[in-house]
Amino acid sequence: MTEHAIVRSPPSSFKGCISSHPLHHTLDLSVAIRQHQEYCRILNELGLEIIRLPVDEAHPDSCFVEDTVVIHRDKAVITRMAKESRRGEEEQVEEILREYKRLRRIQAPATIEGGDVIHLEKYLISGITERTNHEGVFQTSDMLRTRIEVVEDPTIVHLKSHVTFLGAGTFVVTQRFADHPLLRKYRRLVVPADEAYAANTLAIDDVILMSDKHPKSIQLLKEAGFDILPVEMSEFEKCEGALTCLSIIF
Q1: Residues 1 and 205: beta-carbon distance below 8 Å
Q2: What total number of domains does the chain contain?
Q3: Tens of pLDDT, residues 155-194
Q4: Tell me, what CATH number does 141's domain have?
């Protein structure tokens, strides 16, 4: 059972986020703030205590708090992010988590970001991507005292943009990873190619949050037996962020 969600509202500098999205130039801060408020309201209605960090104007990507930490049971590893412009976002997260978890910090030259790490009951899966390297996975595994399996694709930003765990032995995946050997023992629901963004879902106990723009993917998961709650995410997609990115759930 999850109890808490650490969140941080988009700063006024949000349009300076790291993004290659073709609609990045259309990002509307006021809409992003409204969408973030609704996201927090939904998490609260699902029973989570919302822990709000102060807005971090110095870091345009700072609302994507998931990347700053990897939590497993009673331990947490404060990450070292790959992009220099994002380093420092983790400071306020570390301060809050000291009240809840035993903390360690990743050391250079390692990099790892929470957006690459999938949490299963007995072990973790991490991407080796643009943002996470082998040393980052090794240090995280050692610090958390848990096994981490890897999915390697250095051409993607984060693994959870393509693969998320729904529970009940089921993953939702893009076609890119539909036949990955590490996932073959699980049920895999493959989103349509034109709805790849829908592969980033957020499971809160028995409810699955999904981006509301992808009706075929929503129907796919409903037919598979999942309770789906659509959420408006348009402005965060323009910064290459998604549902999992906006909170630290523990």
Answers
A1: yes
A2: 1
A3: 999 999 999 999 999 999 999 999 999 999 999 999 999 9
A4: 3.75.10.10
